[in-house]
Amino acid sequence: MIELLKAFLEAKKSPHWKEPAKSKKSQYPGVYYSTIEDINNATTKALSDNNLIIIPAVKDNILSVKLYHTLTNQWIEDNRMLVSEKPGNQAIGAAQSYQLRYALKALLNICGNDDEDDGQAEQAYIDKQVIKKKEAELAGLLINVKEHVLQNKYVADMIKEKFNIDFTSDSLHHVEKSKLDEVVKFIKSR
After folding, report:
1. What residues contact residue 146 under an 8 Å CB cut-off, 6+ apart?
2. Judgement on whether residues 146 and 93 belong to the same structural domain of the protein
3. How much is the pTM?
4. Residue 67 forms part of a structural domain
5. Chain centre distance of CA 110
6. For labelling, which of 17, 100, 119, 124 has a CA lying 20 to 30 Å from the CA of 110?
7. Helix (H) or strand (E) holding 167
């Protein structure tokens, strides 16, 4: 494997080796990342000048990406499980592209803040999903409380007076969770 490593070091020193561009804008504001094409454009000439080639393959939902030294048949490999959150060929292709990009960065020792950008983007997505879930839970709770309150006009009037929430109104606006929790406690105490 020593010949492959020597060739790789020479490729990294080459004037043809460049930092990959970040040409792709993600769905999250201000987040850009390097595409597979960006990585290839930045490294292929330096790799080929040093008899190195990248060979990706997929078998049994495993992406195998080899950095292969053509003169000695030496290679190193990065293997990644292909997992898709959605069904269908397009989703599988997206998972493959995503994992290939990271496999290339790992094999070629390409640093950058794509990981941070992806992490921030993923965290923003997770935060958004958590907020949506909380809003849905709150809407469900609001509907349940409203149904319960409207069964007794006296309780509805007391809640309107005490909490300034009119459950008899057709235009019941968003109620803060903490205030709704107080209403629930009040109802349970009755």
Report:
1. 167, 172
2. no
3. 0.58
4. yes
5. 20
6. 124
7. none
